[in-house]
Specification:
This protein is α+β, with helices and mostly antiparallel strands and 221 residues long. It contains eight helices and eleven strands. The strands form three sheets. The protein has a four-stranded antiparallel sheet. It has a four-stranded antiparallel sheet with strand order 2-7-4-5. The protein has a three-stranded antiparallel sheet with strand order 9-11-10.
């Protein structure tokens, strides 16, 4: 396990190498590898384990009773998932975590972290870090709600792509979704999404190659 990598992650940021080595067994840390498309956590389950992505990536999905799928987020290396459910193990998971590619996940017992609060400076620091992670996740959910509030597919695309450009610091950027995943994230039909992207390209608003985009011109919704 790469200690230098872990010390840069939001959960362990600020810990010393010695504190990290003490924290891992305390949290019952264990690694597991997953193949692309393999489910990691299932909707309907309960868990005390939160996941930290060591490599690859994880999609957080929701399937309704009629087979419809929504993608809530993409979890990149260094980021965490299921931390809220792990802290509240009596709550049923409403989402499924799926490996977006071959991935390695570090599982950590959130209940041990909560039980160890106020025991030492390292544990207290991790609890504060976990709180910041949860707040950031709430912000990401609010962003998705903002994107899907637009009534038109073009409006949703403009909102999402504008955010990605802002985060990238320029008009050229890549997104973590393929077309189907982007349609699921924005809550629209894939064919309609692809059709609208083609129209936006013809209108001179953007150009794209697979999941890389370049924004041009002034959008009209």
């Amino acid at each position: 396990m790469d200690d230098a990598f872990l010390l840069r992650t939001p959960l362990f940021q600020g810990l010393s190498p010695t504190q990290l080595q003490a924290a891992l067994p305390m949290l019952n840390a264990r690694q597991r590898a997953y193949r692309k498309h393999e489910s990691i956590l299932h909707a309907g389950d309960h868990t005390t384990q939160m996941g930290l992505v060591l490599s690859g990536g994880v999609r957080i999905e929701h399937d309704d009773a009629w087979g419809g799928k929504s993608i809530f987020s993409f979890v990149e290396p260094g980021e965490m998932f299921a931390e809220t459910y792990a802290c509240l193990p009596d709550q049923t998971l409403m989402v499924t975590a799926v490996a977006a590619q071959d991935s390695r996940i570090l599982f950590l017992d959130a209940q041990r972290l909560i039980a160890g609060a106020r025991s030492d400076a390292g544990v207290n620091l991790m609890v504060g870090n976990l709180l910041r992670v949860s707040i950031r996740k709430n912000l990401e959910l609010s962003r998705r709600m903002l994107h899907t509030s637009a009534k038109t597919i073009r409006g949703r695309l403009l909102s999402y792509l504008s955010e990605r450009a802002l985060l990238a610091g320029g008009r050229r950027f890549s997104i973590p979704f393929n077309r189907q995943q982007l349609a699921d994230y924005l809550g629209v039909d894939r064919s309609a999404l692809s059709h609208e992207l083609s129209k936006m390209r013809r209108d001179g608003l953007l150009s794209f190659q697979r999941n890389t985009f370049i924004l041009h011109g002034s959008p009209q919704q």
